[in-house]
Design a protein that fits this description.
The complex is a heterodimer of chains A (368) and B (806). Chain A contains 17 helices and 11 strands. Chain A has a 5-stranded parallel beta sheet. Chain A is α/β, with parallel strands linked by helices. Chain B has 806 residues and is an alpha/beta fold. The chains are: A alpha/beta (368), B alpha/beta (806). The interface between A and B is medium-sized, with 29 and 23 residues.
């Protein structure tokens, strides 16, 4: 069934790995967790699992700071919530999904924070037809992901928390402090106590900083982890290739992945993000988000185009056009910055390295 | 550690037949591998010494420091300390060019080498260093390798190989550990406490043999490792031959090499050179934790030395090895919270509890039996930082790093071995009540002209600054070198004792036994290198600030330099410096009056050179005018006997055929100032510029600038110069006006605000306006003004009956 889904949940996508880990997990587990912290670490960061049939390798899913992942796991086993902050596209959401799936077996118990998020969406609302017919009762209650998390002893994920108005965010405080949610309409039966295993994983985008700043009281109930962009170009290339392969597979695109083009894109994103080329030339940073996720999207668009309209090979002209579409979204100056990057860095690499860089440099004429 | 290597043998991993040195408490020789500043190595070494009970302990270290071992282990000596080695290669044994070399051998309480010495002293065991003398290490090292690398900081105990090997990189990749230090703490420091000395030695040997297997013989020869090991093997062999049982304490990488040499009996050492005693030496010196930290670029030992010293102290006092790290980590966490709270970053008890719980959880997740410093760092990162981790938000982390590194400075207990300059430095610091026992910066306010302590302290700071110790730098105060802020009556200094202070003072030992003597001799040497009178004058200023008298010989040298100097500007600067010294000598309570003689010499030279300055290039005009003004000012006071000569020379200058306008203007101004009857000549000179071509008129602005710089009052006496200035400005085209505008701005910069108002009034009256119209009027658009003027001209033309516009 998952083959038909655009994006199957982590627990479905990696069900076999989770089962294998659970079956062979000898570590101590926090109450209601599906796996021990060590097995969760292996699921996310990869490693070998000893099975009766021998060692089985679990591939790495999150690249970057291993210690950060370890801190996240330990935080979730404790009494504080976990808040993942960072630039857009640094895989905060992916990490929170992986953690939820590995620890609780569910990654979909999620509140999506927006400017329109209300307290009802965080706590509970009512099925008004039942409410009118039967009055306030458990049956008429529509539980929020938070309430589900408390009742079942699983994590509730709160995406983009700082997009939500501060007073709505603060409705989390009492839940996180007392691990209790009171539903006054239900009278004496209205007290919901959180089962062991319940916790909250929040994500917040540092570009939204200041939009709805979290209150100090709420901050105190979270451990913060800053997820940074990947610093290693080689690693970024690997991620682009791997993610594009996965996307191509799920989209039934059966063409080989050109790793040279992926490398070229990884270098472009890395250098524009850092504002400096490998040769030491200073380049202007675009205001657009230059994340690995964006690079994957550009690369996937390029191979999709090649599959449906071309000969199956990634066309560098198309890559440049897609890159322009991704970079020049909000600020018209970004186009000039991209053009300048092609005039200096790409041209220099075309001279020195040649190969794909030459064709990439020639495609600069498409930047309009 | 077992987990790392599993069941695989070294031969399987490296493909080479490498054997580990044996650990035999009953044998005659024990090769004990250590890492510098490692608590576990110290602890296991002490156990091994007590188990083995050797007759002699041989320690890796240049053997010319053997006599310092009792000083380092003296009961009054406080770690961190270092042995400072120097070698002056006058015989060119190291390099084709003679050069001075120096390096440090740092010790903290955790250093196994220090603990070997201390345990030897406690048990009455003979203890010696066994490595080549420092000079021989250099001689046997290839250029830009080992201790001959081109870098500022040289540590004898360079551990680059140990910490940057490919082997370790693979280990980190396999174990998911971030850095060598974290790997080391986990597998050696913490887990090593559970092992017997034999098991620990085996692990150390295994790791070091694997790291060494990556090195080629050529690499080991180039950085002097092989020559050093042959010498160490030679010393070990000597001791064994004399029937003694030996423990040889060396860096882990050397143990395998020594074992191989001893097994083969290949112990012939390199030929030692005869080095004169004044070309090579070593001193004990106080060191700081900050400098001992591997993070500060010495690569000489572990990071966070203070934290590891607390571990060693606990281990030595019999703490439970199963909880010693947990205790130290918790103390560090609490101290970080307290220190962070002092900086207005709130850290609650709940945060500390959460961090502690994080540390414990991480240790369990990482299979470590106790929390180490990296767990403390992770706990703080997770629980103390609220929001995005930025440089500002990461304050608790930097506080933790600072606490774990430590900021105190050691002390050499046996004062007989304290180098004389350091002893003098300490004595003076104590006399002035300066806090010199820590690397933390402090500030001191110095009253320059009241009491006796202030001037003396100022001189002490200036002396330390002059010797290049980096002990202090002046934040505020009069700058006599550049003649700035001279009205200040106090100096504000920031001072901080670092190992560099001691090292530089030791370097100056050959210059004298007190700081004052060292300054006198350093200044004398500096003077010998001078060629320009300006530079000689700057040295005289240094001596003045340091309260150091120059000898008659040095005074004669300065006079000779002035006599030989043909540079007008150098002489001018020299004149300024000597004049300042002469003027301030009473205020600074300096009895020496030699500066007046130098002033006289400079003035004489300047007088004869003055007429030739009539036509200097424009870029030098301002400096020339500055010197002339200085000459005028001095001849109006303390050097009045030169006034007539100055007048004559200025007249000669103004009579020159080609003259630079600004210099000419300044000279005319001074001549007018000397005799007001010359006003007419000055006006004529200006008119000459006004009557000339457009290019000549533009020079009029420079003439005015020079004139106003020396005789601004000529403008105020009557309105003739105002009229001429007006004529000059109105006669220029718009573009020409823009060209001279900077000069005119500078020219009017010589007037006071009230004089500017006076001039504005007169200038406004010429155009039937009020002075406020000029000084306070709204600034109008430049284009509009040009257009208005053009319109005026056109109307005037029309009124006269013609029009260009047609």
């Amino acid at each position: 069934m998952s083959a038909d889904l655009i994006k199957p949940p982590v627990e479905v996508r990696f069900a076999d790995q989770l089962k294998l880990l659970a079956d062979n997990d000898v570590g101590k587990r926090p109450q209601n967790w599906k796996l021990s912290p060590k097995a969760v670490r292996t699921f996310i960061l990869g490693g070998d699992v000893d099975t009766p049939q021998g060692k089985v390798n679990i591939p790495r899913k999150f690249y970057g700071n291993d210690a950060l992942v370890e801190r996240c796991i330990i935080t979730l086993a404790g009494s504080r919530g976990l808040m993942l902050v960072g630039e857009p596209g640094t895989a905060k959401t992916m990490l929170s999904e992986l953690l939820s799936a590995a620890c609780c077996g569910v990654s979909t118990n999620t509140v999506q924070g927006t400017a329109g998020t209300t307290e009802d969406m965080i706590k509970y609302s009512w099925n008004y037809a039942l409410l009118l017919s039967k009055g306030p009762c458990r049956e008429a209650l529509v539980p929020s992901p938070l309430l589900i998390g408390m009742k079942n002893g699983i994590f509730a994920r709160f995406e983009e928390i700082t997009r939500t108005p501060a007073e709505i965010q603060d409705s989390l405080i009492s839940v996180m402090s007392d691990q209790i949610l009171n539903i006054p309409e239900l009278g004496d039966e209205g007290l919901v106590q959180a089962r062991r295993g319940f916790n909250i994983i929040g994500t917040a985008n540092t570009r939204d900083k200041g939009v709805n700043e979290m209150s100090g009281a709420l901050k105190r109930r979270f451990n913060f982890e800053t997820v940074e962009p990947i610093k290693d170009v080689r690693l970024e290339k690997e991620i682009i290739v791997r993610e594009a392969e996965d996307l191509a597979k799920s989209g039934h695109i059966d063409c080989p992945i050109d790793t040279d083009v992926a490398e070229l894109l990884a270098i472009t994103y890395h250098e524009l993000r850092e504002g400096k080329t490998a040769e030491g030339t200073i380049v202007e940073k675009p205001t657009a988000v230059m994340s690995t996720a964006e690079a994957v999207s550009v690369f996937y668009q390029t191979i999709s185009h090649a599959w449906y309209y071309g000969d199956g090979r990634a066309d560098l002209g198309m890559l440049t056009e897609n890159l322009m579409g991704a970079v020049c979204k909000e600020n018209k100056d970004d186009l000039e910055k991209l053009k300048a990057y092609f005039r200096t860095a790409v041209k220099e690499k075309a001279k020195k390295v040649g190969g794909a860089w030459k064709a990439y440099s020639e495609s600069a004429a498409l930047l309009k | 550690m077992e987990g790392l290597f599993g069941e695989r043998s070294i031969a399987e991993i490296t493909g080479k037949d490498l054997r580990l040195p044996a650990y035999d408490p009953k044998g005659r020789l024990m090769l004990f591998p250590v890492r510098h500043h490692s608590p576990v190595c110290s602890w296991q070494l002490i156990r091994a010494i007590n188990e083995f009970r050797p007759d002699v302990i041989l320690i890796e270290g240049p053997e010319n420091a053997n006599e310092l071992i009792p000083v380092l282990t003296d009961e009054n000596t406080v770690m961190p300390c270092a042995v400072y080695y120097f070698y002056k290669d006058k015989k060119k044994l190291v390099n084709k060019e003679p050069r001075d070399y120096k390096c440090y051998y740092p010790f903290i309480s955790s250093s196994p080498e220090y603990n070997a010495m201390a345990e030897g002293r406690r048990l009455g065991i003979e203890t010696r260093f066994m490595d080549l003398p420092y000079s021989e290490i250099l001689i046997n090292t290839a250029e830009n390798k080992g201790l001959r690398k081109e870098q500022d900081k040289h540590s004898y105990t360079d551990e680059t190989r140990l910490t940057r090997s490919q082997f370790y990189a693979r280990l980190c990749e396999k174990t998911g550990i971030r850095s060598f230090e974290e790997f080391w703490e986990k597998y050696f420091e913490i887990e090593g406490l559970k092992l017997t000395p034999e098991e620990f030695c085996k692990n150390m040997h295994t790791y070091c043999v694997l790291v060494r297997s990556e090195e080629t013989a050529q690499e080991l020869a180039c950085d002097g490792t092989l020559a050093r090991e042959r010498h160490m093997a030679h010393r070990i062999s000597e001791a064994l031959d004399s029937g003694k049982r030996v423990i040889a304490v060396t860096g882990g990488l050397h143990s395998a090499g020594l074992a191989e040499l001893l097994e083969k009996g290949d112990t012939a050492t390199v030929k030692l050179h005869k080095i004169p005693f004044d070309m090579e030496g070593c001193y004990p010196m106080a060191y700081s934790y900050e400098a001992a930290d591997a993070l500060h670029g010495y690569a000489s030992g572990m990071s966070y030395p203070y934290f590891y010293d607390t571990i060693t102290a606990k281990l030595k006092s019999g703490a439970d090895t199963a909880s010693v790290y947990d205790e130290a980590a918790l103390e560090l966490l609490i101290n970080t919270a307290k220190e962070t709270a002092k900086r207005d970053v709130s850290v609650s008890i709940a945060d500390v509890t959460a961090a502690k719980s994080m540390m414990t959880g991480l240790a369990a997740l990482r299979n470590i039996s106790q929390c180490g410093i990296y767990e403390v760092e992770d706990g703080i990162t997770s629980s103390f930082i609220k929001g995005e981790k930025t440089i500002a938000a990461a304050l608790p982390i930097s506080v933790m790093h600072r606490l774990a590194t430590g900021d105190s400075v050691g002390h050499i207990g046996d004062s007989r071995h304290t180098p004389p300059l350091i002893a003098d430095f300490q004595k003076q610091c104590e006399a002035f009540k300066l806090k010199y026992a820590s690397v933390t910066p402090h500030e001191a306010d110095v009253q320059l002209f009241s009491g006796e302590k202030g001037p003396a302290l100022s001189r002490f700071f200036h002396r330390m600054e002059y010797l290049g110790t980096d002990f202090c730098n002046m934040l505020k105060g009069p700058d006599l070198h550049r003649s700035r802020d001279r009205s200040r009556v106090r100096e504000q200094w920031r001072y901080r004792r670092t190992p560099k202070v001691d090292a530089v003072l030791i370097d100056h030992t050959t210059d004298g036994f007190t700081i004052e003597e060292a300054c006198v001799n350093t200044a004398a040497r500096a003077l010998m290198d001078r060629r320009r009178s300006a530079d000689a004058a700057q040295t005289a200023v240094d001596c003045f600030l340091m309260g150091v008298d120059m000898t008659d010989e040095q005074q004669r040298l300065i006079d000779a330099m002035i006599a030989a100097d043909g540079d007008f500007f150098s002489l001018g600067e020299g004149l300024g410096c000597f004049a300042r010294l002469h003027e301030l000598r009473e205020l600074y309570n300096i009895s020496d009056n030699s500066s007046y003689g130098h002033m006289d010499s400079c003035m004489g030279k300047l007088m004869s050179a003055l007429p030739a300055m009539a036509n200097v290039p424009s870029e030098n005009a301002e400096d020339t005018v500055k010197v002339i003004r200085r000459m005028f000012s001095l001849t109006g006071g303390v050097m009045a006997h030169w006034r007539d000569t100055l007048e004559e020379e200025l007249l000669t200058l103004t009579a020159a055929r080609d003259k630079q306008a600004e210099v000419y203007g300044a000279a005319m101004g001074l001549l007018y100032a000397m005799d007001h009857s010359r006003r007419g000549e000055t006006e004529n000179a200006m008119r000459g510029y006004l009557k000339g071509s457009s290019e000549v008129r533009k020079q009029g602005a420079a003439f005015l600038k020079g004139l106003f710089s020396t005789a601004g009052d000529i403008m105020l006496a009557d309105d003739s110069f105002i009229r001429m200035t007006d004529e000059l400005l109105t006669s220029l085209s718009h573009l020409d006006f823009l060209e001279i505008l900077p000069s005119m701005k500078l020219a009017f910069g010589y007037f006071t605000p009230s004089e500017i108002r006076e001039i504005a009034r007169s200038a406004a009256a010429l155009h039937g306006a009020d002075d406020t119209d000029i000084t306070n009027a709204e600034i109008i658009d430049e284009g509009l003004f040009v257009y208005g003027r053009k319109l005026d001209e056109e109307i005037a033309l029309n009124l006269k009956g013609g029009s260009r516009l047609g």
